[in-house]
Amino acid sequence: METLHLDACSPQSREQAIDEAARLLKEGQLVIIPTETVYGLAANALDPAAVAGIFAAKGRPQDNPLIVHVDRMEQIPPLVKELPPAAEKLAAAYWPGPLTMILPKSEAVPKVTSGGLDTVAIRMPSQPVARAIIARCGLPLAAPSANLSGSPSPTTALRCAQDMDGRVAAIVDGGPCQVGVESTVVSLVGPVPVVLRPGAITPEMIAGVLGECQVDDSVLHQLKEGQTAASPGMKYKHYAPKASVTILRGSSPAFCREVNRRGGEGVCALCFEEDLPHLQVAAIPYGREGDDLSQARLLFEALRELDEKGARVVYAREPHAAGVGLAVYNRLLRAAGFQVETLPEE
Prior knowledge:
Layout: E1 4-7, H1 11-26, E2 31-33, E3 40-44, H2 48-58, E4 67-69, H3 85-94, E5 99-104, H4 111-114, E6 119-123, H5 128-137, E7 141-142, H6 157-164, E8 170-173, E9 184-187, E10 194-197, H7 203-210, E11 214-215, E12 244-249, H8 252-262, E13 267-271, E14 282-285, H9 292-308, E15 313-317, H10 325-335, E16 340-342
Parallel strand pairs: 1-8, 2-8, 4-6, 5-9, 10-11, 12-15, 12-16, 13-14, 13-15
Antiparallel strand pairs: 2-3, 3-7, 4-7, 5-6, 9-10
Helix pairs in contact: 1-5, 9-10
């Protein structure tokens, strides 16, 4: 398959790119679109054959549910059995934006889209090109991250092309993603809202609207054997470079000292900018210490750069797991296969 590269960054070509993307999506094709979180591999969420194409292109297990993207509230009622007051409150507060809500699905949503579950994950992105494409094609779009399954999510069109050229009909370049990690996923099917995947909309922000919010145990721990994944990003090893990654928990001096001690050929540090002057091994920063927004925006690109450096063993500085930092830590845990070491302080 020859993949079209459509430029939505330039005002001169944006409308043509949106029109072409919408046309392909209406034909049941796969199109990579920009969002504010990461780039998404989009298809008609209501067309089982088109959705099956997403799984095939990504090499994604079919029990991993997909998120359905809409551009206006009027698209939601046909997708769900009901729209509870909690969903309406969160939508008023944080949509369009990086928040996904899990709700009981209607019969209109194919099982292949929901990963075989009786629920559907829905969000309304804020990225203007994404909104325009959804509006132009008039379809709800299933759109997981536009990478090969298990590898770091792409935050630029270039990274999408590296993984997906020849696998999809088109890639729409809308510029770098502003958030950099996937949307927060909150389940509204039980008595208490539960965050299943953290993102830029924090549990505290959700609790500020709904009065309460819990964080699922799977955010910081592996799913138990046989446990069902109710959200993308819960069940399988995700976001991983080719190297073996271990998270090191400790201060900057302890981290730098230990990584320098273990250093050698193929060893690389995934660190904060402030650590760089103190490291004697190859190092790639993923933001500034204490700045969880910069960490979220840069993490996936840093993980990709590890492969380009030929890293075989990676030691990652642990982020502070609060606020948006919880999302960063969640992604790093999965990239590391939950390998975490606590360093002694001297």
